[in-house]
Amino acid sequence: MELTNLECIPGKKIVAHYGVVSGSTVRAKHVGRDIMASLKNLVGGELKGYTELLHEARQESIERMVKIAEDFGANAVVNIRFATSNVAQGASELYVYGTAVRVE
Question: Which CATH number goes with the domain that contains 95?
Fold first, then answer.
């Protein structure tokens, strides 16, 4: 499966268009990560616990989107975008979407 944020894949031709596909996950903050983040705010620096949480959420969302694209028969997803939103106190959704296509 080829994934890109471009509207096409250079050197390849889109031969079929399957429509918008998406994937999402909702993740809650972890109490331990919140404590470490509060301490890190005092001295500055990367909040590694949250960086890992976001990486995991992106990967899970992409995997869900790819599964849907594969079910349509696509071999690529173009014009991929990410969005986030708060869905509850301490919980956020990471949403990814793009256009499922077949390329040659």
Answer: 3.30.110.70
